Fold:
Amino acid sequence: MKDKKGILAALDAEISLEDKIAFELHKVLSDDSPTEKYSDRQDLQNVRRRKLIVAALHAILQHQIEKLTDDDGSAIIELADDTNPFNELSAAFRGLLHDFQRLNEGMEAERVASPVIRESITGDEIIPIDRKLRILWYVASELYGPSDKGLFKNQKALEEHAATILGSTQRSLKTGRSQLKSSGNASEQNLFYTTLNDSRQLSNESGDQISPLKLLLPALQALSRD
Structure:
């Protein structure tokens, strides 16, 4: 490849990184070839979005390489004590490109796009979203009081409403709430009691004008619709 000289080099230097990224992204979006290979709409969308990520990263790295190259095409070597972040980004890019190629062929990722080993995660246990939603409905049931009869006739009616949303039964919710309180794991109990106490505290701060359940319910209903 010939080195860029004179006016061409000057023009290239004037192109901003943002414009270079936009140019590469437009090339991906205007490429219809993936539609010939992938019949599933979601697969096609995922492939195209992976290509967008690759294109953006490639433009960033290429821009950095051009900044470190003089007019003769020779590399400008910069010495630094700290690790060059662009070297790290380049390594990440290679790993991502490897994984994206595998994903686009229906195989599992092996490098940066592969999931971590669940058992290696330290700290609080991760509660799946479905389980978290169920626990929050346990809290709602626990918060039910006489001032909430305008919302639900009684606690059982609230649990029946929650059971319909969760695809469960009222008896199962009642039993599950009891078991969580008596022998649930630490992370789930922490979620239960933190939400319970926060709702009660907010109610107290309102001068008990709004019941704890009425404070929690709108957010819980919104989460249940998602």
